[in-house]
Amino acid sequence: MAVPILTDSFTLGFIGAGNMAESIARGIVKSGLMPASRIRTAHDCASRIEAFESFGVKVYSLNQEVVEDSDVVIFSVKPQVVKDAVSQLRPYLSKDKLLVSVAAGIKLKDLQEWAGHSRFIRVMPNTPAAVGEAASVMSLGEEASEMDGDLIEKIFGRVGKIWKADEKLFDAVTGLSGSGPAYIYLAIEALADGGVAAGLPRDLALSLASQTVLGAASMATKTGRHPGQLKDDVTSPGGTTIAGIHELEKGGYRGILMNAVTAAAKRSRELSQS
């Protein structure tokens, strides 16, 4: 039987020291959930070592050292190398360690097989974890307890919002919230470019675009009103907003966003089958 992890003193390790791991680690430290001294990772690239050490995370030279020194181990490597990463570390992945994967498209049944046990939790977060605004979804493996789930919910809840869902929904989750920030960054950039085209200075246009997206998202989440109702509130008869929306609809704006989500979800399914 796995030993419960003490929530006030556990150590957290990241296998993979890329942008996602850094975003989650920074968000956790910023939230005050745990000090950086209880977080560790491994890398041999000077820039990645510097990125983590800059806010107090211990960086080892070997992944094995990370696993041995961690109670909770988060695999945050690219989907294409998850199998090798988990398999190589299998001798050190005892049931006393809670294992987590944030890799897109990699199923729990495969993770559990590679690790040699089922105390695994799959999480699909996104990079806004770095500023405490992640949208994450989790699904528990066969041997992961409710206490394990509560701990992971606490960790990822400190860097945004987290929901539980059946794993069969994860490809769609990946296509929407996992990849979604990139779609929004494109929208912010395009809005700013539109502002420049209309005569605004670049810095003001970018600031206005970013704050507008933030404000609109806050309205949707905090009021609980349907986005269509919020859109109608801004759209006066014969006004400026309806003229802009008309152009968006002529360009297939909503259909393009829907296609982006479904294309990313399809790619997630392909990764799980490769």
TrEMBL record:
InterPro entries: 6-PGluconate_DH-like_C_sf, NAD(P)-bd_dom_sf, P5C_Rdtase_cat_N, P5CR-like_CS, P5CR_dimer, Pyrroline-COOH_reductase. Residues 12-105 form the Pyrroline-5-carboxylate reductase catalytic N-terminal domain. NADP(+) binds at residues 15-20. It catalyses: L-proline + NADP(+) = (S)-1-pyrroline-5-carboxylate + NADPH + 2 H(+); L-proline + NAD(+) = (S)-1-pyrroline-5-carboxylate + NADH + 2 H(+). NADPH binds at residue 63. GO terms for molecular function: pyrroline-5-carboxylate reductase activity. One of its GO terms (cellular component) is cytoplasm. Residues 167-271 form the Pyrroline-5-carboxylate reductase dimerisation domain. Its EC number is 1.5.1.2. Its main location: cytoplasm. Pathway: Amino-acid biosynthesis; L-proline biosynthesis; L-proline from L-glutamate 5-semialdehyde: step 1/1. Pfam families: F420_oxidored (PF03807), P5CR_dimer (PF14748). The keyword NADP applies. It is found in: Cytoplasm. GO terms for biological process: L-proline biosynthetic process. The keyword NADP applies. Keywords: Amino-acid biosynthesis, Cytoplasm, NADP, Oxidoreductase, Proline biosynthesis. Belongs to the pyrroline-5-carboxylate reductase family. HAMAP family: P5C_reductase (MF_01925). This is Pyrroline-5-carboxylate reductase. It comes from Dillenia turbinata.
